[in-house]
Fold NAD-dependent protein deacylase.
Amino acid sequence: MKLKPTDFIVILTGAGISAESGIRTFRAQDGLWEEHRIEDVATPEGFMRNPELVHAFYNQRRRQLQEASVMPNPAHLALTRLEQQWPGDVLIITQNVDNLHERAGSQKLLHMHGELNKIFCQFCKTRLIWNTDLSTETACPHCGNVGMLRPDIVWFGETPYHMDEILRALAVCQLFISIGTSGLVYPAAKFAQIASQAYRIETNLQETEISGSFNKHLIGPAGSEIPKLIEALLAREFLV
Ligand code: APR
């Protein structure tokens, strides 16, 4: 396959792209799900049972984004370069709730699992940028109700955001690149199959459950594999 300059590139990112920025992935040996139970901190039922526990989990993760050591890494920066320099359209779909793509300068970005630095009020439905801690005592700045705010995170059992736009993009793109996702969580795990008309590249430290859905595999850390791949794409050397 040789890409044309007008081709539409869709990129899916998962926790692996942020690992080299110091953010833990979920399913590694030292991953977040080793220490926390999904059903306690990442489901609507868990939030109803123990909202303070859920707030504490996301407060800690939100605070981490402000640590000086947590910065976009060469993979995030390379994707921004692609968006700026590729003549065709580029869309990033991220499962990550960190803000490293936008801090790297990406503009066409869909957060399908929400964002750590946003919250919403379950009473008045207002969505707000939020960079400090949240508790059951926090009043909604919009409607004043107390105990109605929640992290703007898509929990297990909830529908990911932007699905119409995502499915439309997957159906028409010419290149689909998946970076640093285990392929264990749906619907993202199905995206490579949905984009079956596209050439599909997977980048990961290892093979995944869904490696069979891709045409090409780049095995290695995103921070070194992605800049090389993007350079080759921008140099139009991309012959496979
Ligand atoms: N470079 C490339 N890939 C990496 C790197 C790296 N430096 N480090 C880790 N990986 C890979 C791992 O091999 C693994 O396959 O990233 C993947 C991370 O997988 P998960 O921890 O399962 O994260 P992700 O796929 O993003 O999880 C999907 O599950 O828990 C939910 O909502 C949460 O968005 C998350 C979703």
Summary: The pocket of adenosine-5-diphosphoribose is lined by residues 14-16, 19-20, 25-28, 31, 95, 113, 180-182, 184-185, 203-206, 208, 221-222 (CB under 6 Å). The chain has ten helices and nine strands. Residues 26-69+114-153 form a domain with the SIR2/SIRT2 'Small Domain' fold (CATH 3.30.1600.10). The chain has two domains: 1-23+72-113+161-240, 26-69+114-153.
